[in-house]
Specification:
Creatine Kinase, Chain A, domain 2; 9-stranded mixed sheet; binds magnesium ion; 3 domains; Four Helix Bundle (Hemerythrin (Met), subunit A); single chain; 6-stranded mixed sheet; binds adenosine-5'-diphosphate; about 50% helix
Length: about 700
């Protein structure tokens, strides 16, 4: 294998390739589009398309696709070959600027939540020049946004780009007030840490629940789980190491900055973190990473599980969204500065985030809500469903000093007067101790920890960017009119701290007393499930904020709310059907077969000597028989609940019924089956157990 620097990004039409393959004029024009969003003329698009095609063909591609992120949560692609007939009966390889800029996939099978009228099945895809095209297999993939003919977004990229633009606009206003007229553009960056499980493919194939739903719907607790804490950061086993090695290579070829890998808390659980990049690119890369993770696993006889809760009783998988704001000059606006002025600016941006997280707790919560993630949040392995922020003791003390106009009792006693005093240096290392906070300040970035492992990071970042844009807008409106800038700034920061300190919590987020304090004393929101939070997307304040920044139209919000609830319902219904099927066609027959064997033994023993007690057999037969009955009853109850569900006309009432009835019936059925597993001879059990699944990859 070649050196990493030699092959890194070899499958990406990146800046290096552009520079080498485009004329200076075309390159500059494209760069202007990428950096400043300037409109691209068709002449330039044609030149770029030709260069892209030549490069792709030279690298083995035969097809191209507009690669997009519909609301299914995964990526979509439709391949067209480059071939075009030539007059002599042969073909030439062609790709035009028009084909690069716009595609028209048949969109009728993608969720639109009523946005796309049935007679207008087509949507269109539009090139996102800010994310580089790349080659996957034999296909040139062009990152695109996906819209209906009416221009409504049908994907996750469009609102993400809009939210980045909203934040850019408001942050620039603030920076200009601080005299930074040189800053042209402000962007958010994200480094998503991705957790996953690796299990053996042969075992996976034997489990319909894993195949159909991505998680185990049955399974008794194994004798050993994660209680020894011996897996976290432990030695990586050879098969896993080989997987990670190939995964890294594939990701590096695609220009993805895979950086860190280690074992996680649960057995068979691992994590991969890239170096952070601009949010829309980080989002594309995370989608690609999840896809490549699964592909490479297949080559190693493994399956990569991205579900939030593949196994009950052991930790589930999440994704940490490390987020910061930076200028085009590379200045991180969430980094405390060296001078009083820089500090004031830092505190203003910090306060903008504090205000945003408090005002839009509901949007952040619902941005990570899925049926899968409902199993994690609040289950003492992931942050609770209550959104709060961790700032660390030192920064907290600074804010308190500002709020109360008292001296800051840090390393040196200083009065905190913004714009006048230097912010005391606080030690970065002390800021990252709290791992239980949903939203933690970690020195120069925030880490939003509520995302589920299979979530697209787009949703969380759309809400985060928009909410922060709103805080900044309110600040900019005030400051632009202020007679005394410093006075106004100081007062505004003080007011933010006073009004929003309820969202700041530096203690243990897994503690039950916190939930009580959060909800009863502080009045923070606690939406435990997807049906609880999702409808709040349409609350007046949320619609107003998101539409005013042009991130979503009202119609788009309605459609998204419907689609998310539909996803929730469909997911659980598939799980419930799978359970019914497995219980009836695999589990009950297995228990019966074992019971029959016991009964035969019982009869055989009695035939030898009718006075033999045979207590083992008779006791077990009775227990198994009771369990089989319970399994049969619970299966039927679950089935009935599913039938009743069909009478629900509104998606919201359907989701409530799933939350309150279907999921309850599912866990009752599981309980009976899991107990049966613990008393049935292993050779009768129809699929691999938790012990098999979690400890088999060496
Ligand atoms: P942890 O202790 O959580 O593992 P790390 O410092 O290793 O934290 O970083 C985790 C992730 O945060 C990485 O993906 C890293 O690239 C990303 N990250 C670091 N700095 C920033 C930043 N300024 N903005 C966004 N993400 C960042
Ligand atoms: Mg982290």
């Amino acid at each position: 294998m070649k050196n990493i620097p030699e092959y890194f990004g070899c499958l990406v039409f990146d800046d290096r390739v552009m520079k080498a393959n485009l004329s200076a004029k075309v390159y500059q024009s494209l760069r202007k589009t990428i950096d400043e969003g300037a409109k691209l003329d068709i002449g330039v698009a044609n030149a770029v398309a030709t260069a892209m095609k030549d490069w792709a063909v030279a690298n083995g591609a035969t097809h191209y696709t507009h690669w997009f992120q519909p609301l299914t949560g995964i990526t979509a692609e439709k391949h067209d070959s480059f071939i075009s007939p030539s007059p002599d009966g042969g073909v030439i390889m062609e790709f035009s600027g028009k084909e690069l800029i716009k595609g028209e996939p048949d969109a009728s099978s993608f969720p639109s939540g009523g946005l796309r009228a049935t007679f207008e099945a087509r949507g269109y895809t539009a090139w996102d020049p800010t994310s580089y095209a790349f080659i996957k297999g034999k296909t040139l993939c062009i990152p695109t946004a996906f819209c209906s003919y009416g221009g409504e977004a049908l994907d996750k990229k469009t609102p993400l780009l809009r939210s980045m633009e909203a934040l850019n606009k408001q942050a620039l206003r603030i920076l200009h007030l601080f005299g930074h007229d040189d800053v042209k553009c402000v962007r958010t960056s994200v480094g998503p840490e991705q957790e996953y499980f690796l299990i053996d493919k042969a075992m996976y194939d034997k489990r319909p629940d894993l195949r159909f739903t991505g998680r185990t719907l049955f399974g008794a607790k194994p004798p050993k789980g994660q209680e020894m804490d011996d897996h976290y950061f432990g030695v990586i086993k050879p098969r896993v190491a080989a997987y990670m090695e190939e995964l890294n290579e594939e990701l590096w070829k695609l220009g993805i900055l895979a950086k860190t890998e280690h074992n996680e808390v649960a057995p068979a659980q691992h994590e991969l973190a890239p170096i952070y990049s601009t949010t829309n690119i980080a989002t594309d890369h995370n989608q690609l990473t999840m896809e490549i993770m699964q592909k490479v696993a297949a080559k190693h006889g493994l399956v990569c599980l991205l579900h939030e809760k593949p196994f009950a009783g052991v930790n589930g998988s999440g994704k940490h969204n490390n987020w910061s704001i930076a200028t085009d000059g590379g200045v991180n606006l969430l980094s405390p500065g060296e001078t009083p002025y820089e500090n004031a600016q830092f505190l203003l941006f910090l306060c903008a985030v504090i205000k945003a997280v408090d005002d839009y707790q509901d949007l952040l919560r619902l941005s990570v809500a899925t049926a899968g993630n409902d199993h994690r949040l609040g289950a003492n392995e992931a942050p609770p469903a209550v959104v709060s922020m961790f700032l660390g003791d030192e920064l907290n003390a600074v804010l308190e000093a500002i709020e109360n106009n008292t001296p800051y009792e840090g390393t040196q006693k200083t009065q905190m007067r913004l714009g006048v005093d230097v912010l005391p240096k606080f030690n970065r290392d002390t800021t990252d101790r709290n791992r239980t906070s949903p939203f933690a300040f970690t020195g120069n970035k925030f880490e939003f920890r509520m995302l589920g492992s299979s979530n697209s990071i787009a949703c969380a970042n759309i809400m985060l960017n928009s909410a922060v844009a709103e805080s900044l807008k309110i600040y900019a409106d005030r400051l632009e009119k202020a007679e005394n800038f410093e006075e106004a700034l100081h007062e505004m920061i003080r007011k933010t701290i006073k009004d929003h300190k309820k969202i700041i919590f530096n203690g243990n987020g897994y503690d039950d007393t916190w939930i009580k304090e959060a909800t009863e004393e502080r009045g923070l929101l606690n939406y435990r499930t997807t049906p609880d939070c999702m409808p709040h997307l349409l609350d007046e304040k949320n619609v107003k904020m998101l539409t005013s920044h042009k991130v979503f139209s009202e119609a788009e919000l309605k459609s998204r709310c419907d689609i998310m609830l539909e996803n929730y319902c469909k997911t659980v219904i598939i799980e419930a059907n799978t359970m019914v099927d497995m219980a009836r066609t695999q589990i009950a027959p297995a228990v019966e077969a074992y019971t029959r064997e016991l009964a035969k033994t019982f009869a055989a023993k009695k035939a030898v000597d009718s006075a033999l007690v045979c207590g083992y057999e008779s006791g077990l037969i009775k227990r198994l028989s009771t369990l089989t009955d319970r399994i049969a009853i619970k299966t039927e109850e679950l089935e009935n609940a599913l039938v009743e569900l069909q009478s629900q006309e509104e998606i919201i009432s359907e989701s409530y019924m799933i939350r309150d009835v279907v999921l309850v019936k599912m866990s009752e059925l599981r309980l009976a089956c899991d107990e049966a597993e613990t008393v049935t001879a292993k050779k009768y059990w129809p699929f691999p157990t938790y012990g098999d699944l979690l400890f088999s990859v060496r």
